[in-house]
């Protein structure tokens, strides 16, 4: 290609995906099914419908249909903030003096500040279609909660958000954004649920975790008629909706004849990574192309790199289904790392299976080095990145610096999931030298893994 | 046109403007010259160069050259965050059930959160080219300060920002963003300057104003070798750089054969309004087309609608040049309105002249009604708007509702200057019912206008 690659590649609205891509359809080893926490038998659609919307249950269980049409109402909403730009990081390349070509798919140009809106609007749509009154959810950094608030406001649904306490305190303004969209927000663990009261009694002073907040939100959804629970990550349905990220990325690259060598995403529950890599992984699964795919997780919560591949509860309260995944144990409570969105003890079943089967790599990075990368990126690319996203930036910079050593002109694509406008407390700590790297010991991890449920 | 208008119209990078448009070249009645505050004679380039960069002085005084080339370095930087989208507000139209067609030019997709980066990068570029060490400035809401920090970081220039005290306190995280880009930020009025100490002595407990902060920044620039002062609004040079907004808007509209009926911008010092309307006003001045152009200002600081057209100081400390403009008097300190960027006592000379000559209208709006419009907009368009920008939203909605009454299918274009991620304290007050509308009395305004300097 001699054509000059622009700084930002935008698809036209006509070029936007009309169907989501379901990676599972192309997996030989399907992700293991969710299990009923009582019977330890695979969950049926009937058992899932009291928790999730009907259409979403179908999507959750469907591991054979490769493409699922995106309803027109959702495609219209997508046009409000999509297509998102695929950016050529010319300035970062120049700063690093690397021969590598770096691209990032930027999902932060909407008020939720992240990719979370892609699935939030889909889940709210199906809830509305089913005639529900409202939905409940948890949120870590607040991005998912904000996204869901926006989506519920659009479809006039009630929205109850359980927010991990550490994030609730670190990000006071997130609550106000959710309030602008009419949601109610409760710090978790709370006294408003049975499971919350139990966790508070067992761990007084806990700063919470995604696992706790999930337990609370599920309890409220199942006890209130007309409500269902929705989740922003981990689930198959979420990865399905997020495939819009990867499909757009691939379409934009194809437009200019670009083939990436390395694809990098940050990984908490796997929503962004699973979405970003979807069509590329599809090619890899079908033997049509090969890519290096790298999941980047925080050293404080290293499920892929230091966890165990086993069935575990998705929540701390142990009321949710069991998923087979890389996990640190549902009892594991990570240190108060500033990447709230990456503080989940497990990882999406699909991604866990793919990692287990050798289709992707994983690495963990420490948060001070993540913020160094974030600041370096902000200064040359003009975007203040979220701490979560900055994990991918760290790995992308490291790969680009390796290319500088070897002289290789690799093409690196990473997912820039969102903006850090609500993470300034973390940036302040970093600037003041008050940021620490708290990494779990082997004993910490062994202790929580010892408590994994016994399955088979 | 039968072609479907997309939700977002993006120009390609090739279609981006290669020259700024200088509205003054087409004005029959040129804006009155700046006066030396000592001699009350028009300022010469020689007198201005100790304050401003040389190239910027040229641009400031040039009222005959219609197009001024945008240097390649600036055009490259622009590509980092431009072209900005021109959005068709389909969802807002539907919500309002109006036959009007509403478009907005969204300038918030960059970390400064506003259009201010368009001029910041230009001013930093010329400072660097002149071999300066650094620049000083004032900032109201913090958008200009952030933009300048980003621009200075890019060109490795020192950046000292005097931030209006009320905003400094309302927006604690703005400082942290500026710090990420390496700037130093001082709340104004401060004890660090002579003029700051004088203002503090005269008005103890003042929450500051743009006028005070300008005085301090100018003092520091003129007393430190290798420094110059830069300003984010009011000046001709700023309106020149901001013309990129209007030029892109017009190019995007032309692409689809759309001719606006009404063009609306919020107006503080005039940077966004002047930039947005530039090419449209050019056509109007040359008699090639007609448009209704509406400036929207806060009822708490109504320079166009309740001020006087006269020579006045641009700063409270009375050390800056005098400009002929609509003004409330440099002594006027507006109430602590949350639209910090619109709290300036005067208005760009060019816009003042155009308003005086009947080329545009002006109206003032109260902040509670502005926040009502902001929330309504956020819920359907997915963008949390800045309080400043929301003044334009208010007027656009009002015009669209008039169309609903009359059945007219008018095309309305407004400038959405930025995002409100750092304005959540204001949103919180609005949600809590703690927001008030403090409007100056006729006596307040008469008192400060009585102190205008005597010129001729």
Describe the overall structure:
2 copies of one chain form a homodimer. Helix content of chain A is 42%, strand content 16%. The first copy, chain A, contains 18 helices and 15 strands. Chain A has a 7-stranded mixed sheet with strand order 1-4-5-15-10-11-14, with helices on both faces. A 4-stranded parallel sheet of chain A has the order 8-7-6-9, with helices on both faces. A two-stranded antiparallel ribbon of chain A has the order 2-3. The radius of gyration of chain A is 20 Å and the shape is globular. Chain A binds chain B through residues 6-8, 10, 12-13, 79-81, 90-91, 109-111, 113, 117, 150, 153-154, 172-173, 176-177, 179-182, 375, 378-384, 419, 421-422, 424, 427-428, 431, and chain B through 6-8, 10, 12-13, 76, 79-81, 91, 109-111, 113, 117, 150, 153-154, 172-173, 176-177, 179-182, 375, 378-384, 419, 421-422, 424-425, 427-428, 431.
């Amino acid at each position: 290609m001699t054509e000059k690659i622009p700084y930002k590649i935008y698809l036209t609205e006509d070029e936007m995906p009309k169907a989501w891509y379901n990676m599972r359809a192309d997996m030989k080893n399907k992700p293991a099914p969710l299990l009923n926490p009582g019977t330890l038998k695979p969950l049926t659609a009937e058992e899932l419908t009291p928790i999730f919307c009907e259409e979403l249950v179908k999507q959750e269980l469907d591991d054979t249909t490769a493409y699922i049409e995106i309803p027109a109402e959702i495609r219209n909403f997508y046009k409000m903030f999509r297509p998102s730009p695929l950016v050529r990081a010319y300035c970062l390349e120049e700063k690093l003096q690397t021969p590598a070509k770096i691209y990032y798919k930027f999902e932060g140009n909407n008020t939720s500040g992240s990719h979370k809106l892609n699935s939030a609007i889909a889940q709210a749509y199906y809830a509305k279609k089913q005639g529900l009154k409202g939905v409940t959810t948890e949120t870590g950094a607040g991005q998912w909660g904000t996204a869901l608030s926006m989506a519920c406001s659009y479809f006039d649904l009630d929205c109850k958000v359980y927010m991990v306490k550490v994030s609730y305190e670190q990000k006071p303004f997130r609550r106000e954004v959710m309030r602008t969209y009419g949601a109610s927000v409760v710090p978790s663990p709370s006294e408003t649920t049975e499971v919350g009261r139990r966790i508070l009694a067992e761990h007084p002073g806990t700063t919470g975790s995604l696992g706790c907040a999930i337990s609370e939100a599920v309890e409220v959804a199942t006890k209130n008629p007309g409500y269902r629970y929705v989740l922003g990550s981990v689930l198959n349905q979420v990865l399905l909706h997020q495939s819009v990220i990867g499909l757009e990325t691939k379409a934009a690259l194809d437009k200019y004849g670009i083939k990436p060598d390395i694809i990098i995403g940050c990984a908490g529950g796997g929503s962004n990574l699973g979405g970003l890599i979807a069509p590329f992984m599809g090619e890899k699964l079908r033997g049509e192309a090969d890519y290096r795919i790298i999941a980047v997780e925080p050293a404080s919560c290293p499920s892929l790199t230091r966890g165990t591949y086993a069935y575990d509860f998705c929540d701390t309260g142990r009321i949710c289904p069991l998923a087979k995944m890389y996990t640190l144990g549902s009892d594991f409570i990570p240190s108060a790392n500033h990447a709230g969105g990456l503080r989940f003890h497990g990882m999406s079943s699909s991604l866990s299976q793919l990692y287990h089967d050798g289709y992707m790599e994983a690495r963990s990075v420490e948060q001070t080095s993540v913020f160094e990368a974030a600041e370096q990126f902000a200064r040359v690319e003009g975007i203040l990145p979220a701490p979560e996203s900055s994990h991918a930036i760290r790995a992308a910079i490291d790969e680009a610096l390796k290319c500088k050593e070897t002289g290789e002109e690799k093409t690196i694509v990473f997912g820039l999931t969102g903006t850090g406008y609500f993470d300034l407390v973390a940036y302040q700590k970093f600037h003041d030298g008050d940021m620490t790297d708290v990494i779990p010991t082997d004993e910490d991890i062994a202790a929580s893994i010892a408590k994994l449920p016994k399955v088979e």
